[in-house]
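ARCHIVE CARD
CATEGORY: sequence design from structure
SOURCE FIELD: tokenized fold
FIELD CONTENT:
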């Protein structure tokens, strides 16, 4: 009887151990991100034939693009903020205009691209977000347009950091960029940014 009882204990321990092993999950792997730098457009903005903003400056904007090989969608080449002045009949407005191309590894139905706009000292001016709800499975071009509400902001906009934040695939899978890994990259050019600043303001593009 003692031998049988001991055998049952050993068998129960083995079954319990096997059950515990089957419920283990491997730790999630962190995304490996890289960042490319591009020379952008001049910081001079033309308001009219004889009026310009930042007249006399030789600075050209710096565009940074974060690459995430694990993402179903990648930004093709460079992407960064341009500041333009849109003249209207009685007034006008400054705008951020950001043309960009996306390349998908599979069929997708929606994608969100974020842009952090920085001044010449690396301070955050604004976090922009552009969500496109459209089907595509190869390369497609887009343009985000946002109104700038002050001339000071239009004058100070210098650098930008762009990346794909979220993707919804045709199969229904939602991919989100690794927030911590993104923050590590952004911090390389924006020393005074916090992780909370990665979230965009509640403002949608004009187009």
């Amino acid at each position: 009887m003692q031998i049988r009882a001991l055998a049952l204990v050993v068998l129960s321990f083995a079954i319990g151990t096997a059950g515990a092993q089957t419920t283990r999950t491997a730790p999630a792997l962190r995304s490996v991100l890289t960042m490319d730098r591009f020379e952008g457009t001049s910081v001079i903005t033309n308001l009219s034939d004889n009026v310009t903003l930042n007249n006399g400056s030789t600075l050209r904007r710096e565009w940074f693009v974060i690459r995430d090989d694990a993402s179903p969608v990648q930004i093709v080449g460079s992407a960064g903020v341009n500041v333009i002045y849109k003249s209207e009949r009685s007034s006008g407005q400054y705008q951020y205009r950001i043309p960009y191309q996306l390349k998908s590894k599979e069929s997708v139905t929606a994608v969100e691209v974020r842009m952090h706009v920085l001044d010449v000292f690396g301070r955050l001016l604004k976090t922009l977000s552009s969500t496109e709800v459209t089907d595509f499975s190869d390369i497609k071009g887009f343009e985000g347009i946002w109104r700038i509400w002050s001339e000071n902001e239009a004058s100070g906009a210098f650098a930008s950091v762009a990346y794909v934040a979220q993707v919804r695939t045709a199969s229904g899978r939602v991919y989100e960029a690794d927030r911590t890994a993104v923050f590590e990259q952004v911090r390389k050019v924006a020393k005074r940014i916090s992780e909370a600043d990665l979230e965009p303001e509640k403002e949608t593009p004009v187009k």
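CARD ANNOTATION: Helices lie at 2-22, 151-156, 179-186. Residues 45 and 53 are 5 Å apart (CA to CA).
SHELF: design records, drawer C
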